[in-house]
Amino acid sequence: MTDLYEELEQRSQPHTADHRRAMKKQAARPEPLKERMHVIPRTIRPIQNSLVSAFHGYFSRAPGWVLLTTIGRKSGLPREVLLPCTRTNGEIIVISTYGMRSDWIRNISKNTDVKVTCDGAIVPGRAEIVDDVKKKRALVSKHPFFAPAPFEIVNAVALRLTRPAMVAFLRNWVTDRPVVVIHI
After folding, report:
1. Please, what sign has the CA dihedral across residues 108, 134, 123, 145?
2. Which helix (H) or strand (E) holds 148?
3. Which of 28, 118, 152, 158 pairs as cysteine with 146 (C-beta 3.0–4.6 A)?
4. Over the stretch 30-79, which tens digit does the pLDDT of each residue have?
5. pLDDT band per the 50, 70, 90 thresholds, residue 110
6. Could you give the angle at the alpha carbon of 71 between the alpha carbons of 151 and 57, nearest 5°?
């Protein structure tokens, strides 16, 4: 009987030591910068919410922006977020800047039913998180967008002048970030 216990103990010790080494290595590895920056949107949320409330009518029609309403994964309450986007026929494409740590993307991963405030009307939609790098790159190559330009003329001029650079930037940007296609 003691031989059995000794054998089990010997088997478990290397596994435990390996497990401890793996955990130490994982703890020592710093998070990528984008993952560490996720606190920024949480910090500026009150300011953003005030601006969105004050300019709700404008942002519901602004080119290159969308007001996305998700259902809170824990609370079950509607959550609205302002996101840069591009609109195509029946689809809206957005990129999660902070990866899977963004609250809105975690809400979508739990419940794909969303509402989009588009041209002043609230439209129901279904969100699809695209993880495949080739698909993400194809989407942003075909439909690049210039997020900092909330005015149609500025957006159009900036995109025309900088399209090759913007496509190259976006193809690299989406490599490790989820892209969401909202079907409306």
Report:
1. positive
2. none
3. 158
4. 666 656 666 776 787 788 778 778 877 777 777 778 889 999 999 999 99
5. very high
6. 30
| CA 61 – CA 117 distance, rounded (Å) | 8
Please give the structure tokens belonging to residue 97.
Answer: 């800047």
CA–CA separation, 153 vs 145, rounded Å? 13
Tokens of 146: 């210039």
Of 136, 121, 148, 124, the closest CA to residue 65 belongs to 148
CA distances from 8 to 1, 3, 13, 22, 47 (A): 11, 9, 9, 21, 58
Q: Is the pTM value of this prediction over 0.70?
A: no
What's the CA gap between 13 and 88, in Å, rounded?
57
